[in-house]
Write a structure and sequence with these properties.
The complex is a heterodimer of chains A (about 400) and B (about 375). Chain A is an alpha/beta fold and about 400 residues long. In chain A, about 40% of the residues lie in helices and about 20% in strands. In chain A, the strands form 3 sheets. In chain A, strands 2, 3, 4, 5, 6, 7, 8 and 14 form an 8-stranded mixed beta sheet that branches. In chain A, strands 11-13-12-15-16 form a 5-stranded mixed beta sheet, with helices on both faces. In chain A, strand 15, helix 12 and strand 16 form a beta-alpha-beta unit. In chain A, helix 1 packs parallel to helix 6, helix 3 packs parallel to helix 4 and helix 11 crosses helix 12. Chain A starts with a strand and ends in a 12-residue tail after the last helix. By secondary structure, chain B is an alpha/beta fold. Chain B contains 14 helices and 14 strands. In chain B, the strands form 4 sheets. In chain B, strands 6-5-7-8-12-11-14-13 form an 8-stranded mixed beta sheet, with helices on both faces. A two-stranded antiparallel sheet of chain B has the order 1-4. Classes of the chains: A alpha/beta (about 400), B alpha/beta (about 375). Chains A and B meet through helix 3, helix 4 and strand 10 of A and strand 6, helix 6 and helix 8 of B.
Chain lengths: ~400, ~375
Amino acid sequence: MTDRLKLMQGNEAVAEAALAAGARFFAGYPITPSTEIAEIMAARLPAAGGRFIQMEDEIAGISAVIGASLAGQKAFTATSGPGFSLMQENLGFAAMVEAPCVVVNVQRLGPGTGIPTAPGQGDVMQARWGTHGDHPAVAFCPGSVREAYDLTIQAFNAAERLRTPVILLLDEIVAHMREGVHLPPPDELVIIDRPRPAGPPGSIGAAPAYRPGKGEVPAIPDFGTGYRFHVTGLVHDETGLPVNDSRVADGLIRRLHRKIELARREITFTRACRLEDAQVAVIAYGSAARSARQAVREARERGVQAGFLQLQTIWPFPAEEVANLSRRVPQLIVAEMNLGQLEAEVRRAVSGKAEVIPLTSGGGRLFTPEEILGAICTAPGGRLKKVVHQ
Amino acid sequence: MEVKNESIKPVEINQKWCKGCGICVSFCRQGALALNEAGRAALAHPERCNRCGLCEELCPDFALEVLARSPNAERPADSGSLKSGELAPRLADRQSKPSLGEPGGLPKLQLERYLRRAKLPHLWCPGCGNGLVVHALLKAVHQLSLDQNRIVVVAGIGCAGRAAGYLDFDTLHTTHGRALAFATGVKLARPELTVIVLMGDGDAAAIGGNHLIHAARRNIDLTAVVFNNSIYGMTGGQYSPLTPTAGKGTTAPYGNIERPFDLPALVQGAGGTYVARATTYHNRLLTDLIKGGLQHRGFAFIEAITYCPTAFGRQNKAGSPADALRWQREHAMNVQAYRRLAHDERRDRFPVGLLYCSEAPEYVEASNKLAI
């Protein structure tokens, strides 16, 4: 077995994983701190039989990605907050026309131009609600370089399988951090391709382009394969052609949500540790999860019954997992580099069954383990109750 | 060859698709057509019809078919196309058949091959020129014998953008202004496909202006047709970047104080290698220019001057749809003749034809060379 240990940056891991997942199209616009992804794709895609194009802005970037996706390519783009804002309209379009694609948003400190080189987690709610209309969202949030690799694979798989845009939310720390990672051998990767028609044009297998199939996901053909169908961001029926019927609209919007809900378990990724006897638990995601893990380790060394739940999937929100946690752990600290965007979701899931303690930051720097340890030790459940000899 | 068969009706009229705009009635020199009680076109005097085919050519609703057309029948001077030689020689050189196109539209069975019949009649207003642009596009596709399964039509948002839904190709109705950016992705992903981009003037020149100049600069192999009706029609008549100075819009109630773009000059300046303009009246010229664009390797841009009788016409008192076609006939000028005019003679004229054509590296081909 070849040793796949590599020293790698988070952005590099995203680019490598995208190639491993089968991505052969990248269109984007340079923006700190995501630029390395575009640079690597520009260097790597031609030899891999793919296409790289630097577009005139981020709107054009996601437009070209959706166009390439409808023509059958696994396609993605990478950006940061300001560019992510520009992409919002077409993100909703991709959800509406069910074009699989991945949008990487390396979060920096905002709002406005903020600090382009400093980390933030302020785009959590933009990832959920940034585009207009009542739409579903899928977003993953890695906390390490290896997680960036794994969740990029999962992002492409979810996008393809569910025919929906998937957002990969890094933060500047994870994106620019270098660590040694063991990459999985390519033959161990599970790569999923989108559902396509079961028969040639005109055959029984060739259902109308937008007729829901397995898991409520339609098997939409690729452009140029003879099916001659219509794609529109207008409300459309099973054929893809626009209609003004409010019942059709209601059915379509509900199905777009339902297909994500039906796959919820398969796309919900969390990591838990030391929760078995925890009196206080830290919920965190992205780079904050790294500090939280260390803080919990130190708390345990001091004999505090602390635990940790990392949310790798943030949308759809892992409400069930958090609700289960709240039945066992009386105090939950939510540590995030914003002023409480996911905290409100935690409160909703917990529904009063546990105390929710926010640990917030305006961003711009990493949480130190000491800060989180401090929060653990001042929480009622974090006070030393007994000395545990390990 | 002239075909005479008096036993068949000279003109077939699809009453379901006809919107009664009166263009055919107004342009029929023989007085064969009239509007019936329902306000639809009807063949009032079949014996007068000389099967010249002009009514079919100028019907924006795909509703008229002249059977057994007589290509030599007398037609108004200058109808449908400019006189021979209006295409710049370079275009003629490029085409194996530098014809001015068939007279009339496409025979119905052929036209319907390219239409999603269930979606017709279209949603455009009576007399809207968009149907004429679409008709010219379909004639171009048909005359070039392009494979229907290997054409992708990408459209923007607005009245023009709705064209995609009526066309039986792979069709993509995108977001406002972004059609060229989507089309760039389609073309790069599947270079073997013919990608046609349909946009309105606000779509292409205002919200999508950035994509327009960059597609031209890249010289990517797309054929872009802009339906220029000088107004935002679907939203009810706001001024666009192509509204003439002093023209009225609902957001320019005192007359437009801005200057309009010269779109062909813009695209040429940005690096486009095929730049053309025609009007909906000069339908055969428009067809030929779209054909030339489809055959061109690189970014081909065709501005189709069209008329919005509802949102532009009413506010600007520009007359009936037939009046607007006559205006186009009288103000459009063969580009070579136009260039010979002194500057002050050009004032109310505009050039049509192939305005600019050059060779430059095409983007997809350049991209192909990167793959070793």
